[in-house]
Specification:
alpha/beta; Urease, subunit C, domain 1; 155 residues
Length: 155
């Protein structure tokens, strides 16, 4: 009777190599995730636009480490990453999008107008500041037009 139990146990321990390979592959696949364990910042939104033709927008998380996007994947996987999490709900996120327009023409134009912008962009924080900025601008323009030889400058 003991030999029958021994034989059954030995046979149970012998596993078909193909079955073992499939089992091992499934185990590795199930335990693997390309998501990092830690990131500086993890952004999540139900409206992430990846700028590809396949989909308009989808719910995703984005992991950022050292100011670089290191991973994009499901929100479920993103929640497992250690770091500061920000959930933007249904607000859109465009990871990697660089707004490459310039303001050179605006800067050139702005040298020709009074700076009456409020702080932090400009010096204005009260009506008196607007008045003094406009007076200073007009006086500066008067002196510039006279130096250039124009008779019909600002008055």
């Amino acid at each position: 009777m003991l030999s029958i139990a021994n034989k059954i146990t030995k046979e149970m321990l012998i596993i078909n190599p193909k079955t073992f390979a499939i089992f091992l592959g499934l185990l590795v696949f199930a335990s693997c995730s390309d998501a990092p364990n830690k990131a500086d910042l993890i952004l999540s939104s139900s409206n992430v636009i990846l700028m590809n033709a396949d989909k308009d927008a989808e719910p995703l998380s984005i992991a950022i480490a050292d100011k670089e996007i290191v991973w994009i994947g499901s929100i479920k996987e993103g929640k497992k990453i250690q770091g500061k999490h920000l959930d933007y709900g249904d607000q859109s996120i465009l990871p990697g999008f660089i707004d490459a327009h310039g303001h050179a023409s605006f800067v050139a134009f702005s040298t020709q107008v009074a700076n009456i912008a409020s702080k932090p962009v400009g010096p204005v924080n009260a009506i008196e500041n607007i008045q003094s900025e406009l007076r200073e601008f007009i006086n500066k323009r008067k002196s510039q037009t006279r130096r250039m030889g124009h008779r019909n400058g600002l008055r």
